[in-house]
């Protein structure tokens, strides 16, 4: 039986840049031919949502705006051209809501660079609403065994660090240093790194984060950037040959780590 879809729904709406957010009723959109309508059950909140609300970036958002790009839910309607996902299937709304699928970038799996990309919660309405539209080609297909609350933050934070680790080229048995390892992105990155067979040097600060990284997230060593006299040397010293890690994943928010990031890396030749 087809799900009952209401005419209106609750959403968090920014009428203007800078807010405030208003929790209000808005119409439920109808999916276009290549789109699905997803009943959002859970949504993560990303720092990018704050940038979108505050207009921090050069690219303007749509207005009024429904933010959010870590939405997990159930497909309740689909367009006529969508034949590879069914009503009732679980799906996720990501930052990339849709792309042209035809430009050079799209054809080389670099869809985030597509000039026609639609961005969830930025140039199109996102997951801070009960019913969200997304292009069928880009939704994340979620197995029904995957808890929707747990997978929601994976749809941006998880993808971000997984892609970083994958693109780094580090292979099983090699070492990766994660700067900001005790934060939201870093804690996910450590788990992916371990699952990919990588050895982790966690860089962050404080006893609490040290304990979490070493005892819960599987880092082999921890460098406290606040107490270290020389972070680069201390990171290099954690590797067996002393030459440094094979890759550095940078998920800190401060500028200095960006300037230092490449310094502890082992020589390329
Ligand atoms: Zn995000
Ligand atoms: Zn494209």
UniProtKB/TrEMBL annotation:
Residues 184-264 form the Alcohol dehydrogenase-like C-terminal domain. One of its GO terms (cellular component) is cytoplasm. Gene3D superfamilies: Medium-chain alcohol dehydrogenases, catalytic domain, NAD(P)-binding Rossmann-like Domain. SUPFAM superfamilies: GroES-like, NAD(P)-binding Rossmann-fold domains. Its cofactor is Zn(2+). Keywords: Metal-binding, NAD, Oxidoreductase, Zinc. GO terms for molecular function: alcohol dehydrogenase (NAD+) activity; zinc ion binding. Its EC number is 1.1.1.1. InterPro entries: ADH-like_C, ADH-like_N, ADH_Zn_CS, GroES-like_sf, NAD(P)-bd_dom_sf. Residues 32-142 form the Alcohol dehydrogenase-like N-terminal domain. Belongs to the zinc-containing alcohol dehydrogenase family. This is alcohol dehydrogenase.
